[in-house]
Amino acid sequence: MGANWFIAFPIRVCNLRLRPAPPARVRLFEAPDLHVTLGFLGAVQESDARNAWDRIGDFDSFREVTGSFSGVEPLGHPRKPSALAAIVDTGRDALSEMIAEARDPLLKAAGAPEDSRPPLPHMTLARIQRRAKAAERREALRWAHAIDLREVVFTAPAVALYTWAADRQERLFQIIERHDFDS
Fold it and tell me: In this structure, is the dihedral angle defined by the CA atoms of residues 5, 72, 145 and 15, taken in order, positive or negative?
């Protein structure tokens, strides 16, 4: 299976302190993997992902965003969520505006499927593995709902082109190209 590609805003987080994730079937994201996805390109060829990336300078709304989170919610299938995500509160409008402006043209440039969902700026903290049993999912959801994000702030200082990391045991993603915003 080929690697997936996506374009996202890398996130720098202050004051994020998480209890250890439940031991069974939950993969916690490390700090370098934290991001807010702008557009998921999927298993396109690298040349197609780079075609999308070449358009990154076309968007007037791109700027650094500082914000906060409202809480952690499960995302994915309602009965079998796969992502445990911090939902952006302060900064949501700015990130939503950037996603709304850029997502469709970038997906089209990569030959990726359209995404008709409204923007939902969020930062995935952990993933529940597909093979998790119902009890493991409930334990993961209890862990996620107990996360306190009241003191957590973030900065999204850039946009980047990502793919899978070479060693996914060490980290999940790697940045291939990065464009830092003027502050």
Answer: positive
> Rounded to whole angstroms, what are the CA distances from 87 to 3, 71, 75, 76, 170?
26, 6, 10, 14, 25
Identify the three-state secondary structure at position 166. Answer: coil
Relative to beta strand 158-164, strand 173-180 is antiparallel
Q: Are 181 and 155 in contact (CB under 8 A)?
A: no
Both structure tokens of 165: 């990391």
Give the Å distances, CA to CA, from 111 to 7, 39, 59, 99: 14, 12, 19, 17
Side chain identity, residue 51: N
Question: Could you tell me the pLDDT band of residue 85, with boundaries at 50, 70 and 90?
Answer: very high
Structure tokens at 31: 């700090």
Q: Structure pTM?
A: 0.93
Which residues, including other chains, have CB under 8 Å from residue 147's CB and lie 6 or more apart?
Answer: 18, 19, 71, 72, 86, 125
Q: Which fold has domain 5-180?
A: Cyclic Phosphodiesterase; Chain: A, (3.90.1140)
Identify any residues that bridge with 75 across adjacent strands, giving them in sequence order.
83
> 66-80 burial string, b = 16+ CB within 10 Å, else e?
ebbbeebbbbeeeee
pLDDT digit string, tens, across residues 92-105: 999 999 999 999 99
Neighbours of 106 (CB within 10 A): 27
